[in-house]
Amino acid sequence: MFKPIIALDFSSWPEAKRFLSLFDSESLYVKVGMELFYQTGPKVIEELKEMGHDIFLDLKLHDIPNTVHKAMKGLAQLDVNMVNVHAAGGLEMMEAAVSGLNEGTKQGKERPLIIAVTQLTSTSEEQMQKEQGIKGSLKDSVLRYAALAHQAGLDGVVCSALEACEIRNHIGSQFLSITPGIRFAGDELSDQKRVVTPALAKEYGSSAIVVGRSITKAADPYQAYRKMKQLWEA
Ligand SMILES: O=C(O)c1cc(=O)[nH]c(=O)n1[C@@H]1O[C@H](COP(=O)(O)O)[C@@H](O)[C@H]1O
């Protein structure tokens, strides 16, 4: 079972390090996204690995297949546990991402898991229909992207827990549903639209939950993480 993945959405390494110091020597699963990586570069990955944490490098690649192939080949050398792309880049782009990752993974190392973002959890069905011009339901759009990611050989998708059950039923339980948009009951939703509590995410069949602000902005982030973990693992 995946531990809750903590989104290290900080704009500098000292800030992220201060946050991590609250966890003592506990080994965590952390997510490094654009905010931190664009400030620090690959150095942050080395530091986190030295601390013994598992790493989801969330750079959401979305470009022409050749560029994504080469970028993934480079990212594979960082030896992280998970990377992602946008499914909207299409089948050929996702296949190129997988082959780049395979080529770049050092001998004797496991290739990182690769997942595809479907519809961002900050998107509502109404926004999707209005802004992206997609006529059907949001669930159908997520399922279409998930099927495409599966066809391209990816390990799973990023979606909201609200869609996890359907993905399992259609594609199978081996295919991962990594789900952000997680809040404790009563927490501020902020920019997230498709939001689920940790207990419900588990009930709906999420493979892993990704949590940022409900932990990082809590008065006591360590206790918030413990509570999140307990509800997720119960
Ligand atoms: O790829 C992601 O990680 C991601 C996809 C998505 O659809 N929604 C989403 O919120 N995320 C990320 O998950 C984290 C959620 O943060 P909080 O809303 O603070 O819990 C952020 O780092 C987002 O970049």
From TrEMBL:
This protein's UniProt keywords: Decarboxylase, Lyase, Pyrimidine biosynthesis
Coiled-coil region: none
Catalytic function, reaction form: orotidine 5'-phosphate + H(+) = UMP + CO2
Residues involved in substrate binding: 9, 31, 58-67, 121, 183, 192, 212-213
Entry keyword Lyase: yes
Subunit description: Homodimer.
Protein name: Orotidine 5'-phosphate decarboxylase
Originating organism: Heyndrickxia ginsengihumi
UniProt gene name: pyrF
